[in-house]
Design a protein that fits this description.
The protein is built from nine helices and 16 strands. It has two domains: 41-189 and 283-367, Nucleotidyltransferase, domain 5; 192-267, Aminopeptidase. It has helices at 5-37, 47-51, 165-177, 189-198, 231-239, 259-275, 283-293, 305-316, 348-355, and strands at 41-43, 95-103, 117-124, 131-134, 140-142, 149-151, 183-188, 202-206, 210-212, 220-222, 225-229, 244-247, 250-253, 297-300, 330-334, 340-344.
């Protein structure tokens, strides 16, 4: 049966209108994403070249062999020609390593800056499970700027004009872990709160009411049982160092709360937030998130728009229950200045492999 020419013309015009509309939507979405992306602060990040600008010389994985050494004062500067220089180097092609930093200040030029949250997210390129490792901020390891040991969180200050804070922190962690860090993101406290609010909050369960009046900027105050905590309370929960619970008619300190407790809380909250990414089903929704949060975080200048979109989209399909969560083995120590710190009692590699034997593939054979 022949089709009416007028109907044919109508269908052609309708198809053309739909096609133009689709191109316009895709183009507008792309423009929004591009515009939002360029509002994000980009920080120079090239650890290999940054090493040559340091006044000391260290190598990736240099701390692995001496991880059990209890002598933490008067450390010699590590050199590629020394005995530690033969320590394991990371197999760069075997995984993507992301350094996630939480700080009260996003600006990488701010003096006296400290990293309050330090996480390594390791995504193997094969079918192996992803790995999430918290680095205690009081971990006492080699500072590549000074050549002596310090708390790891002070590395975020950088090394003068030579090396940015994220670069120095990454170098310190590369020396300690034997893993090459590919990318980083640093979030301000406001950024963290906004992310939690954007995903609708996270579930926090406690046996008794808890509080910590010393947390800034908003004190911790959660009821007994499980509740959906919004950004302010989620931030207070992961930052609390003096958590108290209301028990038997009085507030008392919860025994055993320390940096490792905070690390566990941080991971729990972040994994919940990752699980909530599944609610964003289109690139347009993702664009809105980037636009909302673009002033709350900074990333390395080596991450392209395509990489960022691909990474975020892949995280949506991640089964968070498969994430391996090794806990670093540390011991309390008082450093020569009288500061209370944590020293590693087992190498980073040994901790990972003990938790997940497949993690041995992330290191060169020379590490075994």
């Amino acid at each position: 049966m022949p089709v009416d020419p007028k109907l044919k013309g109508y269908l052609r015009r309708s198809g053309l209108v739909i096609a133009v509309a689709m191109v316009a939507v895709v183009g507008w979405t792309g423009y929004q994403l591009w515009s939002s992306w360029h509002n994000v602060e980009r920080v120079p990040f090239e650890t290999e070249s940054a090493r040559s600008n340091l006044p000391t010389t260290t190598t990736i994985g240099a701390a692995l062999e001496g991880a059990n050494d209890p002598i933490v004062g008067g450390d010699p500067v590590l050199t590629p020609d020394g005995p530690d220089g033969a320590a394991a180097q990371a197999v760069n092609e075997s995984l993507n390593a992301f350094l996630v930093i939480g700080s009260d200040q996003k600006d990488q030029t701010t003096p006296s800056r400290r990293a309050d949250v330090i996480l390594l997210f390791l995504l193997p390129n094969n079918d192996a499970a992803p790995i999430l490792v918290s680095i205690p901020r009081d971990l006492y390891i080699l500072n590549p700027c000074t050549g002596s040991k310090s708390r790891v969180n002070v590395n975020l200050n950088g090394c003068g004009a030579r090396v940015t804070g994220p670069e120095q922190l990454a170098i310190a962690l590369e020396d300690y872990t034997g893993i090459t860090i590919d990318h980083f993101a640093v979030f301000s406290f406001d950024g963290f709160k906004n992310i939690i609010d954007r995903v609708g909050g996270v579930n926090i369960c406690v046996d008794y009411p808890v509080q910590d009046l010393k947390v800034d900027p908003v004190a911790l105050n959660l009821p007994a049982g499980c509740s959906v905590a919004q950004g302010d309370q989620a931030l207070a929960w992961i930052r609390s160092r003096h958590t108290k619970q209301y028990l038997n008619g009085a507030w008392s300190s919860i025994p055993g709360v320390n940096d490792l407790t905070r690390n566990q809380r941080q991971q729990d909250v972040i994994i919940q937030a990752l699980a909530e990414l599944k609610q964003f089903t289109t690139v347009t929704e993702f664009t809105g998130v980037v636009e909302e949060l673009s002033h709350d975080f900074a990333i390395d200048d080596g991450m392209s728009l395509t990489e960022a979109v691909s990474f975020a989209w892949n995280l949506r399909s991640l089964d968070t229950s498969t994430i391996v969560r090794p806990v670093l083995e540390v011991a309390d120590y008082v450093d020569p200045s009288g500061a209370y710190v944590l020293i590693p009692t087992k190498s980073f590699r040994d901790v990972l492999v003990a938790t997940d034997p497949d993690a041995a593939d992330l290191f060169a054979d020379s590490a075994s």
